Amino acid sequence: MDTITAIILAIVEGITEFIPVSSTGHMILTTKLLGFDEQEPIMKTYEIVIQLGAILAIALVYRKRILDLLGIGRRGRGRGGVMPASRLNLIHVILGIVPALAVAFFARDFIKGLFGASTVLWALVAGGILMIVAEWWNRNKSRVTAHELDDLSYGQALAIGLYQIISVLWPGFSRSGSTISGGMLSGVSYKASADFSFLIAIPIMCAASGYELLDSYKYFTSDTIMDFAIGFVISFVVAYVVVILFMKLIQKIRPTHFAIYRFILAAVFWLFIMR
Fold first, then answer.
1. How far is 213 from 188, CA to CA, in rounded Å?
2. 70-115, pLDDT tens digit by residue?
3. For the whole model, what pTM was predicted?
4. Fewer Cβ within 10 Å of end Cβ, the chain: N or C?
5. Closest alpha carbon to 30 in 100, 90, 117, 107
6. For position 231, what pLDDT does the model report?
7. Cα gap 216→75, rounded to integer Å
8. pLDDT given for residue 87 in this prediction
């Protein structure tokens, strides 16, 4: 892997990690387009590094909310130092991440066997359909009970966590796509679903990347460290900008827009690369 390839992959990771288009799918398709084997150990290690850059970016964006959840921020302390029960708390986060982490832990080897370009193409289409259905369902305002992040119930947080399992078992489906769609189908507004999806990405991605890093640390050598560092920084910067822009434009960029992009991407790769 040369420096140019490292930069391209870092940009792709930063752009796609938190929007509902599947970063895993894009990485698989991009490496195939560049002529690399995505399953090569060095490539897997590099993907972990640039994912960590993206995680740092989202943690920076949501730093105030994270401090609140830990009881350190101003809103987190509440009156008498106790967070109100109605406010988003760590129980919501735990309910949102435990189902996916449990499935990933017990089905790790099975999931790795599913990675492939054709699997991703079908996942892009299926995920797009789910997003269209979720937006249609969410348009009926009477079905929305959680308009803001702090309105989220424990049941809705668990439902989002269960929807997240789809992305764990089906590479290319998109973690953010499944969680945002799951939130909207569970009565959570589009914006609140996106906020919760981004927030729970931090612990679940840290756990997944950290676990994988235990098997990959040996690939950090004098020959690779510079490219790894460049990729980390680029992924961090790009992911930070993308998340900020996404949240500012969230009312203009609807799930159906992402679904259409997914359909087009799947069709292009099927016609010009897979055939």
1. 34
2. 888 665 555 455 545 458 999 999 999 999 999 988 876 676 666 6
3. 0.88
4. C
5. 117
6. 92
7. 39
8. 83
Distance between CA 14 and CA 63 in Å, rounded?
18
- Asked if 30 contacts 208 with a C-beta cutoff of 8 angstroms, the reply is no
Q: Enter the tokens of residue 82.
A: 């106790």
Which of 110, 103, 108, 115 is closest to 162 using CA atoms? 103
CA angle, 96 then 99 then 101, to 5°: 95
Residue showing tokens 């967070």: 83
H or E segment at 71? none
- CA 188/CA 143 separation, integer angstroms: 8
Rounded distance between C-alpha atoms, residue 175 and residue 163, angstroms: 9
d(CA 113, CA 156): 31
Query: What distance in Å separates the CA atoms of residue 269 and residue 22, rounded to the nearest whole number?
Result: 15
Distances from the Cα of 75 to the Cαs of 78, 150, 156, 189, 200, in angstroms? 6, 11, 22, 22, 19
249: three-class secondary structure by DSSP:
coil
Which residue is associated with the tokens 């040996």? Answer: 218
From residue 259, give the alpha-carbon distance in Å to each of 56, 127, 168, 175.
27, 7, 19, 14
The list of the chain residues with pLDDT below 50 reads 79, 83, 85
Phi, psi of 254 (to 5 degrees): -90, 165
